[in-house]
Amino acid sequence: MTSIVEQIFTFGKEHKNKVALANGKSSKTYGELLNDILCAKKILSERFKIKKGDRVILSADKQMEFVSVYFACHLLEAVTLPIAPDTNPKRYELIKSKVEPKLVVGFKESEDGAITAGLKEFILESDFVFNEETAFPSLDSFADIIFTTGTTGEPKGVQLSHRNIMAAARNINTFIKNATDEVEMLALPISHSFGLGRMRCALSNGQTLVLLGSFANVKRFFRFIKDYEVNGFGMVPASWALLKRLSGDEISKYKDQLNYIEIGSAPMPLEEKEYLMQMLPKTRICMHYGLTEASRSAFMEFHEEENRLNTVGKQSPNMNITIRDESGNELPDGNEGEICVSGDAVTVGYLNIPKDDSFWKNSFRTGDWGVKDPDGYITLKSRKKELINVGGKKVSPIEVEEVLKGIDFIEDCVCIGIPDQDGILGEVVKAFVVTKHPEMISYESVEPLIGNQLEGFKHPVIYSVIDEIPKTTSGKIQRLSLK
Predict the structure, then answer these.
(1) CA dihedral of 249, 253, 258, 262, whole degrees rounded to 10
(2) What strands lie across the sheet with 55-59, from one edge to the other?
(3) Of 74, 335, 462, 476, which residue is 20 to 30 A from 450 by alpha carbon distance?
(4) How many angstroms separate the Cα of 88 from the Cα of each of 118, 267, 298?
(5) How far apart are CA 289 and CA 79, in angstroms?
(6) Whole-number mean pLDDT of the chain?
(7) 273 sits in which H/E element
């Protein structure tokens, strides 16, 4: 087994002229990509003194330079922290305080004096020839820290080793069966596990990866599929809802061209699964269940498992899923309990949090409640955790509540997820507010006061005034009573 970056170099040296990356304006061959990675490595090492174990925050925008700097950090065995370029200031500063980065790439200089650099600084204008024998990272060294949001309201750093991300890519490619000669389009955010994973899967597999800003530009999405002869892509259910709303059944025009689609990060209505199967009768439509901590733990393929579409499928290749009780004991098939996952793709643990808090021995505790039948199919029953799932992006209700409580006329509040009435995002945030000024509580009144304190998808879209927040005698909020 070798690291993702070593797999890219092994393929790239043998296929230097094959296109690795394209974005509608330019393209880059595997030879050019290797050149850029080595160039970025040299600059990271010599100019910024980056070495093994140093932490580097990267603005995870879909630029070719991001790909180069990301893998250059891996060559140096530095730890990358990809975060969204529009991360709100409070979250950004909190992440920096947790990781103490040696370098911040792609963000403006901050008051704490952290060394910053632009992505463009890592690409030399002239050809860069690097003849030194390339050393590759140990599988057990840290590769990434991906920040997700926990129920405490603070972001939690998921630590991933090179073994973890390599194993995840291997498992995903094994199930989806995407081939080296296929072209993949990436429209998902690469600051999240799903999109970043698709990037690693395609490039480690020697495919051509076409970078698209987002699914919002539907015309460009379909133009790229046609012009680049795209064979596959990943999407969340909210992306499909948007594509369907804005383009109808246009996706069916490419039923003989699209070989695979990976779907994940949020539940998908059964009728949408069946409709997509109708539109793409020959396409391998794969849907995963998993977390940043345990990437793609389970998979299913719609056409092959059409009688099991109400489940999340079976455990992925090389992964082991068990159902356990509150004491960590494995339960027999048919019993409901917590979904736990083990395997090489499972995180080595959270940053600065004891491993025992989230593991039963070597099994990661997902916080999701479910049941496994005798055939190995897993049905997700409920979320033990209280996160809100907005279009595949997880929202901590506590984070939203803290912002709302900072508004003068809001005395107390509690947030929950409710079904999106438009059927696009799966869930949206609803805020229950205690106030002496109910006339001030509306989307129009509160929205401007939230401003950029929260990313847009975290903003409540519905408000309701209540007399008091339901709590237990110990003061714990009873969120379920508000559902």
Answers:
(1) -10
(2) 116-117, 103-105, 55-59, 79-83, 142-149, 155-161, 349-350
(3) 476
(4) 19, 27, 32
(5) 26
(6) 91
(7) helix 270-279
114-123, 159-168, 459-468: which has the minimum mean pLDDT? 114-123
Rounded to the nearest 10°, the torsion over CA 140, 142, 146, 149 is 80
Q: In the prediction, which pLDDT does 151 show?
A: 43
pLDDT in tens, 363-373: 999 988 889 99
Sign (positive or negative) of CA dihedral 322, 325, 331, 336: negative
Residue-by-residue DSSP string for 335-379? --EEEEEESTTB-SEETTS-GGGTEETTEEEEEEEEEE-TTS-EE
- Give the Cβ contact number of residue 49 at 10 Å: 11
In 3D space, the residue among 250, 202, 201 whose CA is nearest the CA of residue 223 turns out to be 250
**Which amino acid is it at 141?**
S
Read off the pTM.
0.84
Share of the chain above pLDDT 90, in %: 75
Give the distance from CA 127 to its chain's centroid: 34
Q: What DSSP assignment string belongs to 203-266?
A: HHTT-EEEE-S-TT-HHHHHHHHHHTT--EEEE-HHHHHHHHHHHTTGGGGGTTT--EEEE-SS
CA dihedral sign of residues 342, 206, 65, 126: positive
Contact 188, 212 (CB under 8 A): no
Amino acid identity for residue 149 in this structure: T
Amino acid at 295: S
Contacts of 115 by beta carbon, 8 Å cutoff, 6+ apart = 48, 102, 103, 104
Query: In Å, how far from its chain's centre is CA 130?
Result: 33
Count how many Cα atoms sit within 13 Å of the Cα of residue 246 in the half-sphere of its side chain.
15
Q: Please list, residue by residue across 107-137, b when 16 or more beta carbons sit within 10 angstroms of its beta carbon and e when fewer do.
A: beeeeeeeebbebebbbeeeeeeeeeeeebb
CA distances from 249 to 54, 184, 241, 245, 254 (A): 48, 21, 12, 9, 10
What domains are there in the chain, each with its CATH number? 4-372 (3.40.50.12780), 388-482 (3.30.300.30)
Would you call 452 exposed, middle or buried from its count of C-beta atoms within 10 A (0-12, 13-18, 19+)?
A: exposed
Q: Which two three-digit tokens encode residue 278?
A: 């109708």
> What is the pLDDT, as a whole number, of residue 152?
45
Output 306 or 469, whichever has higher pLDDT.
Answer: 306
pLDDT at 478: 76
Placement of tokens 């860069």 in the chain: 128
- 156-165 pLDDT, tens digit per residue, is 899 999 999 9
> d(Cα 431, Cα 442) in Å, to the nearest integer?
10
145 is written with which tokens? Answer: 């820290």
Whether pLDDT at 474 is above 80: no
